[in-house]
Amino acid sequence: MVIDCHNHLGVDLLFYLNAHQPYAQDLPTLVEIGRSHGVDRWLVFPMVSNLTFDLQRMRQGELAPGGFEAIPYAFENARMMTELYDRYPDLGRDTIPFAIIDPLREPAAQIEHLRRLHAQHPFRGLKLQATIIKSDVRALLTTGRSFLEFAAEFNLPFIIHSSIAPEDTWSQASSILEVAAATPEVRFCLAHSCRFDRPSLDRVAELPNTWFDCSAHRIHCQAVEQGLPIIARPENRLAADYRDPAAVLQCLAETYPTKLIWGTDSPFQSYIDDEIALRSTYAEEVACLNALSPTLHRAATCDNLLALLQLPDETLLSGN
User: Which sequence ranges are marked TM in the entry (predicted)?
Assistant: First the structure.
């Protein structure tokens, strides 16, 4: 079984209103593209900006309160679950839904909504992208501790966007690892290969409750070639030939065989804004994956994700 562990569904109005790309993806599109390249299942969660933010400020590239909704991600999570369970149940059964959260804003109201949603439409984990919404991941240890308690209660893991850029004070890989070390009863996956930061990857290997995914792999290799600061500095960077993304993935898989989880970050396998133009395709992401040996391929596309999820029965992958 080949599972893509990192996919967004829905619309991101921040990207759309500022002419950035991508900005949308629906379930039929994801499944059609994925199946055409040999993928069987998809772990999915909503886009990042949400309707608690003011649309006029979004159009100016800012996220500020004053939107249509009062509870962060309540609309987006419910909307996605309706798409998976009610609109396209034939496709939704091949997904692994995660709910997305904001650890800082209205945590009690979010938890109340998540409890109702989970009872109606079970989800298998929690997603956090703290950078865009500027909501410090370390709030999970303070204001948002209830999310860790909720995850422990329902045995749900986290997938968390990671960063190493100094100006990103919200979602540093080191901060996520600090949360993970303080919460051994909860499991965590750090997205984007920790931006190839070797100390962070080695710490993931040390902690029994952490994994990492390689989502948006090829454009992160491009970022190395372009010298972008979103990637670890050379002295901290995993040693590999970044001109060859397949070779980098091979290095990651061999160095961390029980920790690497494969994912595309669709539709964000490409990322284009006013300053950055990084482009890849779903097909190219799969081609990198298929260069792995059968043993490493199975670990990255199935076994390591199942270890993160800890599903009592693999039939639960259907979401039913």
Answer: none
Length, in residues, of the chain:
320
Instruction: Give first-to-last CA distance, the chain, whole Å.
Output: 18
Domains located in the chain, CATH noted = 3-310 (3.20.20.140)
At residue 312, does pLDDT exceed 90?
A: no
Q: Is the model's pLDDT at 319 over the cut of 50?
A: no
Tokens representing 273 are 């804004």
Whole-number Å distance between alpha carbons of 165 and 74: 30
CA angle 21, 264, 281 (to 5 degrees): 60
Q: Of 216, 274, 230, which Cα lies nearest the Cα of 20?
A: 274
Residue 143 CA to residue 104 CA, distance in Å, equals 6
| Residue predicted with more confidence, 318 or 21 | 21
| In contact, 129 and 100? CB cutoff 8 Å | yes
Number of CB atoms found within 10 A of residue 177's CB: 21
Alpha carbons 8 and 44: distance in angstroms, whole number: 6
Give the predicted TM-score (pTM) of the model: 0.97
Q: How many whole angstroms separate alpha carbon 193 and alpha carbon 185?
A: 22
Structure-token pair, residue 113: 């909504």
The DSSP code for 84 is I
Q: How far apart are CA 4 and CA 250, in angstroms?
A: 17
Measure the CA–CA gap between 73 and 8, rounded to whole angstroms.
13
Reading the block at residue 311, the tokens are 């599903």
pLDDT tens digits along 144-190: 999 999 999 999 999 999 999 999 999 999 999 999 999 999 999 99
Tell me how far apart the alpha carbons of residues 23 and 144 are, in angstroms, rounded to a whole number.
28
